[in-house]
Fold Redox-sensing transcriptional repressor Rex.
Amino acid sequence: MATGRTHRPATRSRGIPEATVARLPLYLRALTALSERSVPTVSSEELAAAAGVNSAKLRKDFSYLGSYGTRGVGYDVEYLVYQISRELGLTQDWPIVMVGIGNLGAALANYGGFASRGFRVAALIDADPSMVGKPVAGIPVQYIDDLERIIEENGVSIGVIATPAGAAQQVCDRLVAAGVSSILNFAPTVLSVPDGVDVRKVDLSIELQILAFHEQRKAGEDGAVGEAGLPSAAAVRAAAPATAPAATAGRKGPDGDVPAVMPA
Amino acid sequence: MATGRTHRPATRSRGIPEATVARLPLYLRALTALSERSVPTVSSEELAAAAGVNSAKLRKDFSYLGSYGTRGVGYDVEYLVYQISRELGLTQDWPIVMVGIGNLGAALANYGGFASRGFRVAALIDADPSMVGKPVAGIPVQYIDDLERIIEENGVSIGVIATPAGAAQQVCDRLVAAGVSSILNFAPTVLSVPDGVDVRKVDLSIELQILAFHEQRKAGEDGAVGEAGLPSAAAVRAAAPATAPAATAGRKGPDGDVPAVMPA
DNA sequence: GGATGTGAATCTATTCACAGCC
DNA sequence: GGCTGTGAATAGATTCACATCC
Protein backbone atom coordinates (compact mmCIF):
# COMPACT_ATOMS: atom_id res chain seq x y z
CA MET A 1 0.00 0.00 0.00
CA ALA A 2 3.01 2.22 -0.08
CA THR A 3 2.79 4.59 -2.95
CA GLY A 4 5.10 7.25 -4.24
CA ARG A 5 7.87 6.55 -6.63
CA THR A 6 9.33 3.15 -6.30
CA HIS A 7 11.73 3.77 -3.44
CA ARG A 8 14.77 1.81 -4.32
CA PRO A 9 15.99 -0.55 -1.58
CA ALA A 10 18.85 1.90 -1.24
CA THR A 11 21.87 0.54 -3.06
CA ARG A 12 22.73 -2.40 -0.81
CA SER A 13 20.51 -2.16 2.18
CA ARG A 14 20.48 -5.26 4.34
CA GLY A 15 17.34 -5.95 2.33
CA ILE A 16 14.48 -6.44 4.72
CA PRO A 17 11.45 -7.22 2.56
CA GLU A 18 8.85 -4.51 2.46
CA ALA A 19 6.17 -6.92 3.65
CA THR A 20 8.27 -7.68 6.69
CA VAL A 21 8.86 -4.02 7.47
CA ALA A 22 5.11 -3.46 7.37
CA ARG A 23 4.62 -6.11 10.03
CA LEU A 24 7.35 -5.02 12.41
CA PRO A 25 5.14 -2.35 14.02
CA LEU A 26 2.55 -5.04 14.66
CA TYR A 27 5.05 -7.24 16.41
CA LEU A 28 6.31 -4.28 18.33
CA ARG A 29 2.87 -3.46 19.62
CA ALA A 30 2.25 -7.02 20.72
CA LEU A 31 5.66 -7.13 22.38
CA THR A 32 5.09 -3.84 24.15
CA ALA A 33 1.89 -5.22 25.61
CA LEU A 34 3.74 -8.31 26.83
CA SER A 35 6.48 -6.13 28.22
CA GLU A 36 3.98 -4.10 30.20
CA ARG A 37 2.67 -7.32 31.68
CA SER A 38 6.27 -8.20 32.52
CA VAL A 39 6.23 -11.34 30.41
CA PRO A 40 9.92 -12.28 30.03
CA THR A 41 9.86 -14.56 26.98
CA VAL A 42 7.44 -15.50 24.24
CA SER A 43 7.32 -18.21 21.60
CA SER A 44 6.81 -17.50 17.93
CA GLU A 45 3.47 -19.23 18.22
CA GLU A 46 2.22 -16.99 21.03
CA LEU A 47 3.56 -13.78 19.60
CA ALA A 48 2.19 -14.59 16.18
CA ALA A 49 -1.25 -15.11 17.66
CA ALA A 50 -1.04 -11.78 19.47
CA ALA A 51 0.02 -10.02 16.29
CA GLY A 52 -2.54 -11.75 14.13
CA VAL A 53 -0.16 -13.57 11.80
CA ASN A 54 1.02 -17.16 11.55
CA SER A 55 4.14 -18.31 13.28
CA ALA A 56 6.09 -19.36 10.21
CA LYS A 57 5.76 -15.87 8.82
CA LEU A 58 6.84 -14.32 12.06
CA ARG A 59 9.92 -16.49 12.32
CA LYS A 60 10.84 -15.75 8.75
CA ASP A 61 10.38 -12.06 9.40
CA PHE A 62 12.61 -12.16 12.45
CA SER A 63 15.22 -14.12 10.55
CA TYR A 64 15.78 -11.05 8.40
CA LEU A 65 16.66 -9.06 11.48
CA GLY A 66 19.08 -11.64 12.81
CA SER A 67 18.94 -14.55 15.21
CA TYR A 68 17.35 -13.02 18.22
CA GLY A 69 15.59 -16.09 19.62
CA THR A 70 16.67 -19.11 21.60
CA ARG A 71 15.81 -22.55 20.29
CA GLY A 72 13.62 -24.52 22.60
CA VAL A 73 12.77 -21.36 24.52
CA GLY A 74 11.51 -18.48 22.42
CA TYR A 75 12.27 -14.78 22.26
CA ASP A 76 13.29 -12.43 25.04
CA VAL A 77 10.57 -9.79 25.07
CA GLU A 78 12.61 -6.79 26.17
CA TYR A 79 15.43 -7.61 23.84
CA LEU A 80 13.13 -7.96 20.86
CA VAL A 81 11.34 -4.73 21.71
CA TYR A 82 14.64 -2.97 21.57
CA GLN A 83 15.85 -4.65 18.40
CA ILE A 84 12.68 -3.96 16.49
CA SER A 85 12.51 -0.39 17.76
CA ARG A 86 16.02 0.17 16.58
CA GLU A 87 15.38 -1.47 13.25
CA LEU A 88 12.37 0.75 12.70
CA GLY A 89 14.31 3.81 13.70
CA LEU A 90 12.22 4.47 16.77
CA THR A 91 15.15 4.81 19.08
CA GLN A 92 15.47 8.28 17.75
CA ASP A 93 13.03 11.09 17.96
CA TRP A 94 11.13 12.02 14.83
CA PRO A 95 9.68 15.50 14.72
CA ILE A 96 6.72 15.63 12.37
CA VAL A 97 4.60 18.42 11.00
CA MET A 98 0.96 18.07 10.24
CA VAL A 99 -0.56 20.25 7.56
CA GLY A 100 -4.29 20.76 7.41
CA ILE A 101 -5.94 21.03 10.79
CA GLY A 102 -9.55 20.44 9.89
CA ASN A 103 -11.70 17.75 11.41
CA LEU A 104 -9.39 14.97 10.50
CA GLY A 105 -6.17 16.81 11.17
CA ALA A 106 -7.35 17.82 14.61
CA ALA A 107 -8.41 14.27 15.38
CA LEU A 108 -5.02 12.99 14.28
CA ALA A 109 -3.25 15.57 16.37
CA ASN A 110 -5.23 14.43 19.37
CA TYR A 111 -4.61 10.80 18.63
CA GLY A 112 -2.26 9.50 21.28
CA GLY A 113 -0.73 6.76 19.17
CA PHE A 114 1.08 9.39 17.19
CA ALA A 115 3.19 10.67 19.99
CA SER A 116 3.59 7.35 21.69
CA ARG A 117 6.40 5.88 19.63
CA GLY A 118 9.20 8.25 18.98
CA PHE A 119 7.09 10.66 17.00
CA ARG A 120 6.68 14.19 18.21
CA VAL A 121 4.29 16.66 16.69
CA ALA A 122 6.61 19.60 16.11
CA ALA A 123 3.99 21.80 14.50
CA LEU A 124 0.44 22.01 13.27
CA ILE A 125 0.01 24.07 10.16
CA ASP A 126 -3.08 25.38 8.42
CA ALA A 127 -3.94 27.73 5.59
CA ASP A 128 -6.93 29.22 7.38
CA PRO A 129 -5.83 32.42 9.17
CA SER A 130 -8.68 32.08 11.62
CA MET A 131 -7.20 28.83 12.87
CA VAL A 132 -3.81 30.33 13.55
CA GLY A 133 -2.93 30.54 17.20
CA LYS A 134 -5.73 28.26 18.29
CA PRO A 135 -4.38 25.40 20.33
CA VAL A 136 -5.20 21.93 19.06
CA ALA A 137 -4.07 19.07 21.24
CA GLY A 138 -2.19 21.68 23.21
CA ILE A 139 -0.23 22.94 20.24
CA PRO A 140 -0.98 26.31 18.66
CA VAL A 141 -1.73 26.15 14.96
CA GLN A 142 0.73 28.02 12.75
CA TYR A 143 0.23 29.67 9.43
CA ILE A 144 1.13 27.93 6.20
CA ASP A 145 3.45 30.75 5.14
CA ASP A 146 5.86 29.68 7.84
CA LEU A 147 6.00 26.09 6.63
CA GLU A 148 9.54 26.24 5.27
CA ARG A 149 10.91 27.97 8.34
CA ILE A 150 9.20 25.51 10.69
CA ILE A 151 10.59 22.51 8.85
CA GLU A 152 14.04 23.96 8.78
CA GLU A 153 14.09 24.99 12.44
CA ASN A 154 12.79 21.68 13.70
CA GLY A 155 14.72 19.40 11.41
CA VAL A 156 11.53 17.78 10.22
CA SER A 157 11.79 14.99 7.70
CA ILE A 158 8.32 13.46 8.04
CA GLY A 159 5.18 15.32 7.10
CA VAL A 160 1.51 14.45 7.46
CA ILE A 161 -0.95 15.89 4.98
CA ALA A 162 -4.56 16.14 6.09
CA THR A 163 -5.70 18.93 3.81
CA PRO A 164 -8.54 18.75 1.32
CA ALA A 165 -7.62 16.89 -1.84
CA GLY A 166 -7.24 20.06 -3.85
CA ALA A 167 -4.47 21.46 -1.69
CA ALA A 168 -2.53 18.27 -1.12
CA GLN A 169 -0.16 18.30 -4.09
CA GLN A 170 0.80 21.91 -3.53
CA VAL A 171 1.46 21.29 0.15
CA CYS A 172 3.39 18.19 -0.76
CA ASP A 173 5.60 20.12 -3.16
CA ARG A 174 6.40 22.68 -0.51
CA LEU A 175 7.15 20.03 2.07
CA VAL A 176 9.49 18.24 -0.28
CA ALA A 177 11.20 21.43 -1.37
CA ALA A 178 11.77 22.29 2.26
CA GLY A 179 13.49 18.97 2.93
CA VAL A 180 10.76 16.56 3.98
CA SER A 181 11.36 13.14 2.47
CA SER A 182 8.60 11.01 3.95
CA ILE A 183 4.95 11.86 3.68
CA LEU A 184 1.86 10.33 5.14
CA ASN A 185 -1.06 11.42 3.02
CA PHE A 186 -4.64 11.42 4.22
CA ALA A 187 -5.96 13.47 1.33
CA PRO A 188 -7.76 11.39 -1.27
CA THR A 189 -5.30 12.19 -4.03
CA VAL A 190 -2.34 10.59 -5.70
CA LEU A 191 0.71 12.64 -4.85
CA SER A 192 3.56 12.84 -7.22
CA VAL A 193 6.96 13.26 -5.67
CA PRO A 194 10.54 13.10 -6.84
CA ASP A 195 12.62 9.98 -6.46
CA GLY A 196 13.87 9.46 -2.98
CA VAL A 197 10.72 10.67 -1.30
CA ASP A 198 8.42 8.09 0.27
CA VAL A 199 4.70 8.52 0.33
CA ARG A 200 2.27 6.35 2.17
CA LYS A 201 -1.39 7.00 1.96
CA VAL A 202 -4.35 6.29 4.15
CA ASP A 203 -7.66 6.48 2.42
CA LEU A 204 -10.82 5.77 4.30
CA SER A 205 -13.02 5.58 1.29
CA ILE A 206 -10.73 3.14 -0.49
CA GLU A 207 -10.73 0.78 2.46
CA LEU A 208 -14.50 0.79 2.52
CA GLN A 209 -14.65 0.09 -1.18
CA ILE A 210 -12.43 -2.93 -0.78
CA LEU A 211 -14.69 -4.21 1.97
CA ALA A 212 -17.73 -3.62 -0.22
CA PHE A 213 -16.16 -5.73 -2.93
CA HIS A 214 -15.77 -8.70 -0.64
CA GLU A 215 -19.12 -8.11 0.97
CA GLN A 216 -20.79 -8.20 -2.40
CA ARG A 217 -19.04 -11.47 -3.15
CA LYS A 218 -20.28 -13.03 0.04
CA ALA A 219 -23.83 -11.97 -0.71
CA GLY A 220 -23.60 -12.95 -4.35
CA GLU A 221 -22.43 -16.48 -3.62
CA ASP A 222 -25.71 -17.03 -1.82
CA GLY A 223 -25.64 -20.33 0.05
CA ALA A 224 -22.12 -21.09 -1.10
CA VAL A 225 -20.17 -18.62 1.01
CA GLY A 226 -16.96 -20.59 0.75
CA GLU A 227 -16.95 -22.93 3.69
CA ALA A 228 -17.82 -22.06 7.25
CA GLY A 229 -18.95 -18.72 5.89
CA LEU A 230 -21.71 -17.22 7.91
CA PRO A 231 -24.87 -17.01 5.87
CA SER A 232 -25.21 -13.97 8.05
CA ALA A 233 -28.43 -12.08 8.30
CA ALA A 234 -26.75 -9.06 6.81
CA ALA A 235 -25.32 -11.00 3.88
CA VAL A 236 -28.69 -12.41 3.04
CA ARG A 237 -30.25 -9.00 3.29
CA ALA A 238 -27.58 -7.51 1.07
CA ALA A 239 -28.26 -10.11 -1.58
CA ALA A 240 -31.60 -8.60 -2.39
CA PRO A 241 -30.71 -5.21 -3.96
CA ALA A 242 -27.92 -6.85 -5.99
CA THR A 243 -30.18 -6.94 -9.02
CA ALA A 244 -30.87 -3.22 -9.01
CA PRO A 245 -27.86 -1.60 -10.70
CA ALA A 246 -28.69 2.08 -10.42
CA ALA A 247 -25.36 2.88 -12.03
CA THR A 248 -22.96 4.71 -9.75
CA ALA A 249 -25.58 5.37 -7.12
CA GLY A 250 -24.93 8.30 -4.87
CA ARG A 251 -22.12 9.77 -6.92
CA LYS A 252 -22.38 13.46 -7.46
CA GLY A 253 -20.91 13.54 -10.96
CA PRO A 254 -22.61 12.88 -14.28
CA ASP A 255 -24.03 9.41 -14.33
CA GLY A 256 -26.87 9.72 -16.72
CA ASP A 257 -26.36 7.50 -19.69
CA VAL A 258 -24.20 4.72 -18.40
CA PRO A 259 -24.12 1.63 -20.57
CA ALA A 260 -25.71 -1.37 -18.90
CA VAL A 261 -23.84 -4.16 -20.60
CA MET A 262 -22.92 -7.57 -19.31
CA PRO A 263 -19.31 -8.39 -18.56
CA ALA A 264 -17.36 -10.71 -20.81
CA MET B 1 -2.88 -4.75 4.43
CA ALA B 2 -6.09 -6.63 4.89
CA THR B 3 -6.11 -8.51 8.13
CA GLY B 4 -8.63 -10.78 9.69
CA ARG B 5 -8.87 -14.43 8.94
CA THR B 6 -7.75 -15.31 5.50
CA HIS B 7 -10.97 -14.74 3.58
CA ARG B 8 -11.11 -17.49 1.11
CA PRO B 9 -11.64 -16.37 -2.51
CA ALA B 10 -15.10 -17.86 -2.10
CA THR B 11 -15.18 -21.27 -3.70
CA ARG B 12 -14.94 -20.31 -7.36
CA SER B 13 -15.14 -16.58 -7.53
CA ARG B 14 -14.07 -15.14 -10.84
CA GLY B 15 -10.76 -14.72 -8.99
CA ILE B 16 -9.77 -11.11 -9.16
CA PRO B 17 -6.42 -10.86 -7.37
CA GLU B 18 -6.52 -9.05 -4.08
CA ALA B 19 -3.84 -6.62 -5.24
CA THR B 20 -6.01 -5.71 -8.18
CA VAL B 21 -9.09 -5.21 -6.03
CA ALA B 22 -7.11 -2.84 -3.85
CA ARG B 23 -6.29 -0.71 -6.88
CA LEU B 24 -9.75 -0.56 -8.40
CA PRO B 25 -10.85 2.30 -6.12
CA LEU B 26 -7.80 4.23 -7.27
CA TYR B 27 -8.70 3.78 -10.90
CA LEU B 28 -12.27 4.67 -10.12
CA ARG B 29 -11.24 7.92 -8.53
CA ALA B 30 -9.06 8.89 -11.46
CA LEU B 31 -11.83 7.97 -13.87
CA THR B 32 -14.41 9.94 -11.95
CA ALA B 33 -12.20 12.99 -12.19
CA LEU B 34 -11.90 12.49 -15.95
CA SER B 35 -15.62 11.97 -16.20
CA GLU B 36 -16.27 15.25 -14.44
CA ARG B 37 -14.06 16.96 -16.97
CA SER B 38 -16.07 15.22 -19.66
CA VAL B 39 -13.08 13.39 -21.06
CA PRO B 40 -14.55 10.66 -23.27
CA THR B 41 -11.68 8.19 -23.54
CA VAL B 42 -8.36 7.58 -21.88
CA SER B 43 -5.34 5.43 -22.67
CA SER B 44 -3.84 3.00 -20.21
CA GLU B 45 -0.80 5.22 -20.10
CA GLU B 46 -2.72 8.36 -19.14
CA LEU B 47 -5.00 6.66 -16.67
CA ALA B 48 -2.09 4.86 -15.07
CA ALA B 49 -0.30 8.15 -14.57
CA ALA B 50 -3.39 9.66 -12.97
CA ALA B 51 -3.75 6.70 -10.65
CA GLY B 52 -0.07 6.54 -9.79
CA VAL B 53 0.69 3.09 -11.18
CA ASN B 54 2.39 1.87 -14.34
CA SER B 55 0.41 1.11 -17.42
CA ALA B 56 1.27 -2.59 -17.68
CA LYS B 57 -0.14 -3.16 -14.24
CA LEU B 58 -3.26 -1.24 -15.06
CA ARG B 59 -3.88 -3.18 -18.25
CA LYS B 60 -3.32 -6.45 -16.46
CA ASP B 61 -5.72 -5.36 -13.73
CA PHE B 62 -8.40 -4.48 -16.25
CA SER B 63 -7.88 -7.74 -18.04
CA TYR B 64 -9.24 -9.52 -14.96
CA LEU B 65 -12.47 -7.57 -15.28
CA GLY B 66 -12.88 -8.30 -18.98
CA SER B 67 -11.99 -6.60 -22.22
CA TYR B 68 -13.36 -3.15 -21.74
CA GLY B 69 -10.94 -1.19 -23.90
CA THR B 70 -10.53 -0.62 -27.61
CA ARG B 71 -7.17 -1.34 -29.21
CA GLY B 72 -5.62 1.64 -30.80
CA VAL B 73 -7.97 3.94 -28.90
CA GLY B 74 -8.13 3.37 -25.17
CA TYR B 75 -10.92 3.04 -22.64
CA ASP B 76 -14.30 4.68 -22.60
CA VAL B 77 -14.35 6.65 -19.38
CA GLU B 78 -18.06 6.42 -18.54
CA TYR B 79 -18.18 2.78 -19.37
CA LEU B 80 -15.22 1.95 -17.20
CA VAL B 81 -16.59 3.99 -14.33
CA TYR B 82 -19.70 1.91 -14.43
CA GLN B 83 -17.92 -1.42 -14.79
CA ILE B 84 -15.56 -0.78 -11.92
CA SER B 85 -18.33 0.60 -9.73
CA ARG B 86 -20.32 -2.51 -10.35
CA GLU B 87 -17.37 -4.78 -9.75
CA LEU B 88 -16.71 -3.08 -6.44
CA GLY B 89 -20.33 -3.32 -5.47
CA LEU B 90 -20.84 0.42 -5.43
CA THR B 91 -23.92 0.33 -7.61
CA GLN B 92 -25.75 -0.62 -4.49
CA ASP B 93 -26.14 1.35 -1.33
CA TRP B 94 -24.15 0.24 1.70
CA PRO B 95 -25.46 1.35 5.05
CA ILE B 96 -22.67 1.46 7.60
CA VAL B 97 -22.54 2.00 11.32
CA MET B 98 -19.75 3.75 13.07
CA VAL B 99 -19.00 2.85 16.65
CA GLY B 100 -16.96 5.18 18.82
CA ILE B 101 -17.65 8.83 18.20
CA GLY B 102 -14.65 10.44 19.81
CA ASN B 103 -12.27 12.77 18.05
CA LEU B 104 -11.48 10.36 15.29
CA GLY B 105 -14.96 8.93 14.92
CA ALA B 106 -16.44 12.41 14.63
CA ALA B 107 -13.84 13.36 12.06
CA LEU B 108 -14.59 10.27 10.05
CA ALA B 109 -18.32 10.91 10.23
CA ASN B 110 -17.71 14.39 8.89
CA TYR B 111 -15.42 13.14 6.19
CA GLY B 112 -17.21 13.55 2.90
CA GLY B 113 -15.44 10.73 1.12
CA PHE B 114 -17.37 8.28 3.20
CA ALA B 115 -20.75 9.14 1.90
CA SER B 116 -19.64 9.96 -1.59
CA ARG B 117 -19.50 6.47 -3.06
CA GLY B 118 -22.44 4.31 -2.24
CA PHE B 119 -21.79 4.38 1.48
CA ARG B 120 -24.35 5.85 3.80
CA VAL B 121 -23.79 6.41 7.47
CA ALA B 122 -26.84 4.71 8.92
CA ALA B 123 -25.93 5.33 12.53
CA LEU B 124 -23.32 6.70 14.88
CA ILE B 125 -22.99 4.77 18.11
CA ASP B 126 -21.15 5.53 21.31
CA ALA B 127 -20.85 4.11 24.79
CA ASP B 128 -20.79 7.51 26.45
CA PRO B 129 -24.34 8.41 27.55
CA SER B 130 -23.49 12.09 27.48
CA MET B 131 -22.87 11.83 23.74
CA VAL B 132 -26.24 10.30 23.01
CA GLY B 133 -28.58 12.53 21.08
CA LYS B 134 -25.87 14.98 20.12
CA PRO B 135 -25.77 15.44 16.39
CA VAL B 136 -22.44 14.73 14.72
CA ALA B 137 -22.28 15.43 11.02
CA GLY B 138 -26.01 15.93 11.23
CA ILE B 139 -26.68 12.50 12.67
CA PRO B 140 -27.69 12.05 16.31
CA VAL B 141 -25.43 9.70 18.24
CA GLN B 142 -27.15 6.59 19.56
CA TYR B 143 -26.39 4.51 22.59
CA ILE B 144 -24.38 1.33 22.36
CA ASP B 145 -27.13 -0.76 23.92
CA ASP B 146 -29.15 -0.32 20.76
CA LEU B 147 -26.37 -1.62 18.52
CA GLU B 148 -28.03 -4.91 17.65
CA ARG B 149 -31.37 -3.32 16.91
CA ILE B 150 -29.81 -0.62 14.75
CA ILE B 151 -27.90 -3.15 12.68
CA GLU B 152 -30.93 -5.31 12.21
CA GLU B 153 -33.27 -2.47 11.31
CA ASN B 154 -30.90 -0.93 8.82
CA GLY B 155 -29.59 -4.10 7.25
CA VAL B 156 -26.04 -3.07 8.03
CA SER B 157 -23.25 -5.40 6.97
CA ILE B 158 -20.29 -3.03 7.23
CA GLY B 159 -19.13 -1.57 10.51
CA VAL B 160 -16.47 0.99 11.35
CA ILE B 161 -14.76 0.80 14.71
CA ALA B 162 -13.21 3.99 16.05
CA THR B 163 -13.27 3.21 19.74
CA PRO B 164 -10.29 3.14 22.06
CA ALA B 165 -8.22 -0.02 21.69
CA GLY B 166 -9.58 -1.54 24.87
CA ALA B 167 -13.16 -1.57 23.66
CA ALA B 168 -12.57 -2.63 20.10
CA GLN B 169 -12.69 -6.42 20.40
CA GLN B 170 -15.86 -6.33 22.43
CA VAL B 171 -17.55 -4.00 19.97
CA CYS B 172 -16.31 -6.18 17.14
CA ASP B 173 -17.83 -9.28 18.71
CA ARG B 174 -21.18 -7.58 19.07
CA LEU B 175 -21.11 -6.30 15.51
CA VAL B 176 -20.32 -9.74 14.18
CA ALA B 177 -22.94 -11.42 16.34
CA ALA B 178 -25.48 -8.94 15.04
CA GLY B 179 -24.71 -9.81 11.43
CA VAL B 180 -21.94 -7.45 10.35
CA SER B 181 -19.44 -9.27 8.19
CA SER B 182 -17.03 -6.51 7.14
CA ILE B 183 -15.21 -4.31 9.57
CA LEU B 184 -12.98 -1.31 9.15
CA ASN B 185 -10.92 -0.98 12.28
CA PHE B 186 -9.25 2.25 13.37
CA ALA B 187 -8.45 1.06 16.86
CA PRO B 188 -4.81 0.07 17.30
CA THR B 189 -5.59 -3.55 18.09
CA VAL B 190 -5.62 -6.85 16.29
CA LEU B 191 -9.21 -7.99 16.06
CA SER B 192 -10.02 -11.64 16.01
CA VAL B 193 -13.09 -12.59 14.07
CA PRO B 194 -14.66 -15.82 12.85
CA ASP B 195 -14.10 -17.11 9.37
CA GLY B 196 -16.11 -15.30 6.75
CA VAL B 197 -15.72 -11.90 8.35
CA ASP B 198 -13.35 -9.42 6.72
CA VAL B 199 -11.37 -6.96 8.73
CA ARG B 200 -9.32 -4.15 7.33
CA LYS B 201 -7.37 -1.91 9.58
CA VAL B 202 -6.09 1.59 9.36
CA ASP B 203 -3.38 2.41 11.80
CA LEU B 204 -1.82 5.83 11.80
CA SER B 205 1.03 4.94 14.05
CA ILE B 206 1.99 1.90 11.97
CA GLU B 207 2.15 3.97 8.82
CA LEU B 208 4.46 6.43 10.50
CA GLN B 209 6.68 3.66 11.75
CA ILE B 210 7.05 2.29 8.25
CA LEU B 211 8.03 5.74 7.04
CA ALA B 212 10.51 6.09 9.87
CA PHE B 213 12.14 2.83 8.81
CA HIS B 214 12.78 4.10 5.31
CA GLU B 215 13.70 7.53 6.54
CA GLN B 216 16.33 6.03 8.77
CA ARG B 217 17.70 4.09 5.84
CA LYS B 218 18.03 7.20 3.75
CA ALA B 219 19.87 8.99 6.50
CA GLY B 220 22.06 6.01 7.30
CA GLU B 221 23.21 5.60 3.72
CA ASP B 222 24.73 9.07 3.96
CA GLY B 223 25.85 10.22 0.55
CA ALA B 224 24.78 7.01 -1.11
CA VAL B 225 21.03 7.50 -1.12
CA GLY B 226 20.47 5.08 -3.94
CA GLU B 227 20.62 7.11 -7.09
CA ALA B 228 18.94 10.41 -7.71
CA GLY B 229 18.12 10.39 -4.05
CA LEU B 230 17.97 13.82 -2.58
CA PRO B 231 20.71 14.29 -0.09
CA SER B 232 17.99 16.44 1.38
CA ALA B 233 18.63 18.87 4.15
CA ALA B 234 16.37 16.89 6.40
CA ALA B 235 18.13 13.62 5.64
CA VAL B 236 21.46 15.11 6.47
CA ARG B 237 20.13 16.56 9.66
CA ALA B 238 18.57 13.26 10.62
CA ALA B 239 21.87 11.51 10.16
CA ALA B 240 23.33 13.21 13.17
CA PRO B 241 21.31 11.75 16.06
CA ALA B 242 21.53 8.29 14.53
CA THR B 243 24.35 7.41 16.87
CA ALA B 244 22.38 8.20 20.02
CA PRO B 245 20.22 5.15 20.67
CA ALA B 246 18.23 6.24 23.70
CA ALA B 247 16.38 2.92 23.57
CA THR B 248 12.68 3.24 22.87
CA ALA B 249 12.67 6.95 23.44
CA GLY B 250 9.35 8.40 24.28
CA ARG B 251 7.64 5.11 25.06
CA LYS B 252 5.64 5.13 28.23
CA GLY B 253 6.29 1.53 29.22
CA PRO B 254 9.30 0.12 31.06
CA ASP B 255 12.41 0.83 29.10
CA GLY B 256 15.05 0.88 31.75
CA ASP B 257 17.50 -1.92 31.22
CA VAL B 258 17.33 -2.55 27.53
CA PRO B 259 20.24 -4.54 26.17
CA ALA B 260 22.41 -2.54 23.83
CA VAL B 261 23.81 -5.25 21.64
CA MET B 262 24.85 -5.14 18.03
CA PRO B 263 22.83 -6.96 15.42
CA ALA B 264 24.13 -10.12 13.81
C1' DG C 1 11.42 -32.32 24.00
C1' DG C 2 10.63 -28.03 22.24
C1' DA C 3 11.15 -24.11 19.55
C1' DT C 4 14.03 -21.49 16.37
C1' DG C 5 15.99 -20.59 11.81
C1' DT C 6 15.99 -21.49 7.06
C1' DG C 7 16.42 -23.82 2.47
C1' DA C 8 13.07 -25.44 -0.83
C1' DA C 9 8.50 -25.36 -2.68
C1' DT C 10 4.60 -22.86 -3.61
C1' DC C 11 1.76 -19.14 -4.44
C1' DT C 12 0.97 -14.31 -5.73
C1' DA C 13 2.17 -10.13 -7.98
C1' DT C 14 4.70 -7.40 -11.25
C1' DT C 15 6.95 -6.60 -15.41
C1' DC C 16 8.20 -7.66 -20.11
C1' DA C 17 7.35 -7.90 -24.77
C1' DC C 18 4.63 -8.72 -28.52
C1' DA C 19 0.60 -10.66 -31.09
C1' DG C 20 -3.79 -8.93 -32.24
C1' DC C 21 -6.99 -5.58 -33.39
C1' DC C 22 -8.66 -0.88 -34.45
C1' DG D 1 0.68 3.56 -36.23
C1' DG D 2 -1.18 3.13 -31.80
C1' DC D 3 -2.82 0.87 -27.92
C1' DT D 4 -4.97 -3.08 -25.76
C1' DG D 5 -4.79 -7.74 -23.92
C1' DT D 6 -2.13 -11.43 -22.41
C1' DG D 7 1.14 -15.35 -22.32
C1' DA D 8 5.82 -15.86 -20.55
C1' DA D 9 9.42 -14.36 -17.49
C1' DT D 10 10.74 -12.46 -13.33
C1' DA D 11 10.41 -10.95 -8.72
C1' DG D 12 8.47 -11.14 -4.24
C1' DA D 13 5.91 -13.20 -0.35
C1' DT D 14 4.16 -17.10 2.08
C1' DT D 15 4.15 -21.65 3.58
C1' DC D 16 6.22 -26.11 4.34
C1' DA D 17 9.04 -29.13 6.67
C1' DC D 18 12.98 -30.23 8.95
C1' DA D 19 17.86 -29.77 10.45
C1' DT D 20 19.73 -27.43 14.29
C1' DC D 21 20.49 -26.08 18.70
C1' DC D 22 19.17 -25.17 23.74
Q: What stands out?
A: The radius of gyration of chain A is 23 Å.
